[in-house]
């Protein structure tokens, strides 16, 4: 429960990005772009969304706006990794990033580079 007895999920969501080390270096093919302060700058002037996509499934800021303006709370966000960190070079991989306490799991022997092959499930 959050403030005034309101369930926490009604007003707060936490998305942990696997492999993301915010201060230096990354592991596991991160970063996955979902919109953060430096990402649009790094990807070029023609990108207004850090993910390179213009929908709330791929952009954290657009997901937040959809939640605030339409009441549609995000359960997951699709993170995108570009070839050579260049939007015009194409998508290298995508994956679902789940709302905590859920965790993204790849579906069996499916291609882990495709977002649709990931699903959210409880950590424990």
Automatic annotation (TrEMBL):
Write one Gene Ontology MF term: carboxylic ester hydrolase activity
Instruction: Tell me its EC number(s), please.
Output: 3.1.1.-
Q: Which InterPro entries match?
A: Tannase/feruloyl_esterase (IPR011118)
Q: Which UniProt keywords apply?
A: Disulfide bond, Hydrolase, Serine esterase, Signal
Show which residues constitute the signal peptide: none
Segments passing through the bilayer = none
One Pfam family here? Tannase
| EC class (word) | hydrolase
Family that this chain belongs to:
Belongs to the tannase family.
Q: Which PANTHER family match?
A: CARBOXYLIC ESTER HYDROLASE, FERULOYL ESTERASE B-RELATED
Full protein name? Carboxylic ester hydrolase
Q: Which organism is it from?
A: Cladophialophora psammophila CBS 110553
């Amino acid at each position: 429960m959050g403030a005034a007895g309101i369930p926490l999920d009604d007003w707060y969501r936490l998305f942990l990005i696997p492999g993301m080390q915010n201060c230096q270096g990354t592991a596991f093919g991160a970063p996955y772009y979902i919109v953060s302060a430096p990402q649009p700058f790094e990807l070029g002037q023609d990108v207004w969304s850090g993910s390179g996509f213009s929908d709330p499934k791929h952009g954290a800021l657009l997901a937040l706006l959809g939640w605030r303006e339409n009441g549609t709370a995000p359960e997951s966000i699709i993170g995108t990794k570009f070839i050579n960190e260049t939007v015009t070079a194409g998508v290298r991989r995508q994956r679902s990033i789940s709302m905590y306490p859920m965790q993204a799991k790849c579906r069996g022997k499916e291609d882990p580079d495709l977002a649709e092959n990931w699903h959210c499930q409880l950590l424990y």
